[in-house]
Amino acid sequence: MDLRAGDSWGMLACLCTVLWQVPAVPALNRTGDPGPGPSIQKTYDLTRYLEHQLRSLAGTYLNYLGPPFNEPDFNPPRLGVETLPKATVNLEVWRSLNDKLRLTQNYEAYSHLLCYLRGLNRQAATAELRRSLAHFCTSLQGLLGSIAGVMAALGYPLPQPLPGTEPTWAPGPAHSDFLQKMDDFWLLKELQTWLWRSAKDFNRLKKKMQPPATAVTLHLEARGF
Amino acid sequence: MALFAVLQTAFLLALLPLRTYQSEVLSEPLPLTPESLSVSINSAKQCLHLQWTVHNLDYHQELKMVFEIQISRFKASDVIWTGNYSTTVTQNQVLHWSWESELPLECAIHFVRMRTMVDDARIPVPRFWSNWSSWKKADAQNSLGDHPLYVFPKDKLVEEGSDVTICYISRNHQDNISCYLEDVLTFGKQLDQSVWAFELKNISFLRKTGTNFYCQGQGVPEGVVLFVSKVLEEPKNFSCETRDLKTLTCTWDPGDDTGLIQLPSYTLFESFSRKKTLCKHRNRCDWQVTQDSQEMYNFTLVAENYFRKRSVSILFNLIHGVHPVAPYNLFPKNVSATNATMTWKVHSIGNNSALLCQLQLLGEGKVIQQHNISIRVNGEYLLSELEPDTEYMARVRCAYADHFWKWSELISQNFTTAEAAPSEAPDVWRDVMFVSGHPTVTLFWKPLSKVHTHGKILFYNVVVENLDEASSLEVLSVPAPANSTKVTLNQSSYQIHVTAHNSVGPSPASTVAISGHPGNENVEEGRINGTEDGFPMSWKPQSRNATGYVVEWCDGPQNLPCVLQWKNLGPTTTGTVISSGAFRPGVRYNFRIYEISTKRMAHLLEKKTGYLEELAPSYNPQVVPNNLTSHSFTLSWKDYPTESQTGFIQGYYVYLKSKAGEKCHRGFEKTVLPDNSVCCKYTIDNPDQKTFVMKDLQPESVYEFFVTPYTSAGEGPMDDFRKVTTPDEYSHILIHIILPMIFCVLVIMIACYLKSQWLKDKCYPDIPDPYKSSVLSLIKSKENPHITIMNVNDCVPDAIEVVNKPEGSKIQFTGTRKSPTETKGTKPAYLDLLPTEKNYSGPGPCICFENFTYNQAASDLGYCGHFPVTSQAPHCPLGPLTSPENLLKTLEQNYMNSLGEIPAGEANLNYVSQLASPVSGDKESPPTNPPEPALCSEYKMQMAIPLGLASPPPSENSSLSSTTLLDPGEHYH
Questions:
Q1: pTM for the full predicted model
Q2: With an 8 Å Cβ cutoff, is A73 touching chain B?
Q3: DSSP B956
Q4: Contacts of B209 in chain A (CB under 8 A)
Q5: Any signal peptide, and if so, which residues (chain A) (predicted)?
Q6: Is the pLDDT of residue B518 over 90?
């Protein structure tokens, strides 16, 4: 039997949906009580998979935007994208974060990024690109659910969005098309950085849940695509 | 000229009062200057929009005026454009005018001023310009923020092939800014201290998301996206049609996509009704037909985008463009073997307008019938002349009957007609074999073609009618798809009728007649030559009443059984060409031509045989040389079959090579073989001659020969020559003498060999060597291990055998007495020296070797293991000979005398063999079991006996078993 790309997308979507539903099924949470270890591992695996998936999607989308956005050495200073949750933090700050804060920041960041990504999907002019973006959004939704599952397993409450702070995507020329392209560029780049940071976070959390925990040396910085 | 001067003067005089009147109307000279001039900027369109009024115009006054406009950039003094704008001005009218700037307006401050002049024909010249208005400033930079770098124009739409000017404003003059079109560094022109402009010529379409132009200094890059549109094409193939007279559909080919996310708009405008509709698709538009019975439509299709507007028009008559929807529910009804009624329905058009429908009937993919039927709602048509049991396809399409424009789409339906009885008799032929005088007929028939079967053939009926017995009918049913059957008949005349049956009924019968007697088979066979088309043949009719002719043959005569083929020919035919795809070159085909009588009886007319193409023989005969003499030999190849060759054998070539010389014999001709060797060749032109005598040969010479057949296509393959050596002239004499001699010698040798033992015994018998006697080992082990020769003392005789000499002079000391009539001189006599059990009977005959030469008391110590000699032992052959009384008597009478009579030294020794028995070695132990024949033998002492006493042949008076014992062969048995 041939497995086409579309089939693998479908399977991944299925996986993500299942992961999303995991915390909602009480029976699964009670049986055996394996602890948060397996769900952290699954979240870590999904993060790594999304990193791989984004690498392909970003290449396609940046080519769609055209030069200079698809050039490998294009690394402009960040400006005007303050609305995007920033993944890069000072190392000391990152070290000072506790598990709850880390997970909360991850959850909030992906909630925002997912919203912006859906806006990107609406803008895309080609059907193929729209399909790829839609699949990635489904996967990201799965990651969000997975993080929520980990938080539930550890007994942390999900962050409640403050009224009026929901990220919104405003269609139309909020600013020039060039800046819009720049925003898209930064969105993909920020997403990449967040996925990288999340992988580190979940790896650290995973080791912590399996004592004796080993020290994690983490150096956070933005990476190019 | 004078007249012209007068007229000019008169004209001027006439104008003077008019000027006076005008002055009265306009009163004073007009101070018509543009006032309230304002300038605004439209950044999206890069336009300066001017707005002003002209004061001092009287009420209802309407004047044509010219406005001269000047535009400066950066400084008022730098005028970059001057132009005129003419218009008719009324009182208090606000005038508007726009100017499109190549340079984005945000990059420079612009200044505008204007003046005006009356340009009305009612105002006489000279006319004067008014004063310039004051400079009005248009500054778009006021609205910019505090970013260090700006690039303009923002998100501009341009058409492919046009030129674009892009500029940037840098607030930081120290910053080194580079600008790129996509990824190509671009160089511009500095317009001001902080403004640079870039002229991009003939810009091309790259992608839907636009072409990127960006500049980058130390900070964040700033750029613009140029959305390049391809040139909008004029719609092509614009046409309209209606399917139901209610809705019109206009279609067109929009051409290439402009490449922008914003698609061009298409609007359909109808000029008679003055209605228009915005099309939802870029290649199709629907138009609702109104109920006011408008027939004519003048449609204009307008395609429009940001840059262009394209339009195309057609004049359309509604009823000339009716394209009906495809009919539906096409079904066959009342399908018989030859007829079918097709029914279908159509969608109504307008008020049930008539439709012209075309019904097509297809068989095997080809249109075989086509009918046009005019209908309104329901269609029905009877298709006739159909073939039974045939699959057809019916398809129908319709067009508007009032004015044909276009057929609707086709719909189709398959159906199969019913079966009917086969329409043609099967083609039948027969093969008659006479077995024991009775004809055995094999009937063959060819399957009917599909055109004639009219259904699936289920079986064939064979009716055998005996013409000599009126009521005799035999019916055979042969299930399909068999194509032959065998019938055994009597010696009567028969008619055989064959019919093919399908589910409906039988076909017409095919009849063959069979005579109960063999016909004339002795017809001479003629030869025919095949051609590319087959075998052409002709024949001579024998009777005038022939109803036809049949040519039969086998497609593969080399394969058995023969696949009989035949061809029917009409009564007037006297020739045909038999062709078959199975015919092959080099194969002999036999054809038989039959004449069919009026009674359907077949008479053999001619036989033909031939090859499609003759080939050279594929192999040579096996030639056997015989009758070899010193001067001749005969070659023979009688087993070579000429009938099964690849061509008609016309004769044979006999090749002969001789080492004697190069001269050929008479009748031979010299020829050169393919290997360039020279030999003699003899041609036999009679294919039936299969022997050849080589004559006039030299004795004791080597000849090589080779025989090959030849056909019209050539001779057989070159094989190896066989060698024959002619014998010497006298060799046969030698053979007649030497061979019998050799035979005799061989017989003698064989006889000698077979009788060698006998000769040996007769001529040179074996001389025993006492040093090698086997008894020594027995003696050694018992008493003296160092003994090398047997002494008399070492032996203990336990029996004595008396050999009776024929002269009767020898008296043998033996315990056996036997009458001459009982012994016949062939058996030895034995005497047991030990008491024996009277009733003992051994298991079988036993031989006891005894030394008859010595008589010692010690002999009683010996133990003879053989069974005791008793008169009650009939199984022992010696039993009757060993009566104790006879033996003792004989011994007493003869023994002493005989010893005294033998002179020492003269006597030849006669030895009696002896054999030691391992069982008998234990003398002390009595026999517990009857000894086995081999085991009961025991060595007995032996003594030399004068040969004269033993050697004479036995006579009737001789004593017991004397000769038998002298035979060594007997002893060793």
A1: 0.54
A2: no
A3: T
A4: 64-66, 125, 181
A5: 1-27
A6: no
